[in-house]
Specification:
Blueprint: H1 6-17, E1 30-35, E2 52-68, E3 71-84, H2 91-106
Parallel strand pairs: 1-2
Antiparallel strand pairs: 2-3
């Protein structure tokens, strides 16, 4: 399963950043990403507003103890949460999405 933005999504992102996104382009179901890590927030739980079907919340990066090659070490970690409209997808689909996001964040060369 591929979760990429694709050319249409990338075009939307580019126009949104420049303030040129039309209201009609936000009417279809979408996934919103919110990041409050730069505000010091560790964990974000968002509220979905139609036509959104999901909201991914990203917190700040924190160094935590973790197993690294079988030894205790310190790794930067990020908490990602998913609020999901279960009319659009079930929890198993949401879990696969978060697992894919985790893999891509750890290996950005796969994007």
């Amino acid at each position: 399963m591929h979760w990429g933005l694709g050319p249409v999504g990338l075009s939307h992102v580019s126009r949104a950043r420049r303030g040129r996104l039309r209201a009609s382009e936000t009417a279809d179901p979408s996934i919103t990403i919110t990041s409050l890590g730069d505000q010091g927030v560790e964990c974000v739980f968002g509220v979905i507003y139609p036509p959104q079907v999901a909201l991914v919340g990203l917190g700040r990066v924190i160094e935590r103890p973790a197993a690294v090659n079988g030894l205790l070490g310190v790794r930067p970690t990020l908490t990602a949460t998913l609020s999901l409209d279960h009319r659009a997808a079930n929890g198993a689909t949401g879990a696969r999405f978060l697992n894919c996001l985790d893999r891509l964040l750890q290996r950005p060369e796969e994007l």
